[in-house]
Amino acid sequence: MLDHFFLDSSFGTHSCLILEVLGMSLEELTRRTVPNRFPISTCKRIVKEVLLGLDFLHRECGIVHTYLKLDNLLLRMEDTKGVPLLGDSESPIDLSHVSVGPSSVVITDLGVATEIETPFDGAIQPYGLRAPEVYLGIPYGRPTDIWNLGCLVFELVTYCWLFNPEEMLR
């Protein structure tokens, strides 16, 4: 977060956040690069970045993300040159122009994050990425985020879901 302020209106006081401009999500990147694959070295760098981010959320912030998915992992942009314009969302992307370096993957969407000290046993996580404890209805914590990441690693490497949510509903 770069800054924040409050705005008063006839509807009440609103918290306004000023955030950095980020690039596309890993979901969009994988969708637009098929049939290519991320090199294993790139997958390793992405996973390392996400693990560092989760460690920060868990240890420093005391929260569990609860909704980790490729849509919520955005790439930081070095510059805006070559960034697709609005409406140019289907152009293929050459993976040789994508670099993942230190602090280049950003975990976003903390809208359903929960405090570690407050055990919760409700339904969380995208259906195909839910941890066993969520299905069993028992309290969850940090391991649910790690479960999510494990499923996402499979998805990054294979471009396939580990558990297909459509088949799980049958």
From TrEMBL:
Protein name: non-specific serine/threonine protein kinase
Keyword Nucleotide-binding: yes
Record-linked SUPFAM superfamilies: Protein kinase-like (PK-like)
SMART domains in the cross-refs: S_TKc
This protein's UniProt keywords: ATP-binding, Kinase, Nucleotide-binding, Serine/threonine-protein kinase, Transferase
Catalytic function, reaction form: L-threonyl-[protein] + ATP = O-phospho-L-threonyl-[protein] + ADP + H(+); L-seryl-[protein] + ATP = O-phospho-L-seryl-[protein] + ADP + H(+)
Keyword ATP-binding: yes
Domain Protein kinase: 1-170
Naturally occurring in which organism (per UniProt): Armillaria ostoyae
GO molecular function, one term: protein serine/threonine kinase activity
The enzyme's E.C. designation: 2.7.11.1
Cellular compartments per GO CC: cytoplasm; nucleus
GO biological process: regulation of mRNA processing; spliceosomal complex assembly
Domain of life: Eukaryota
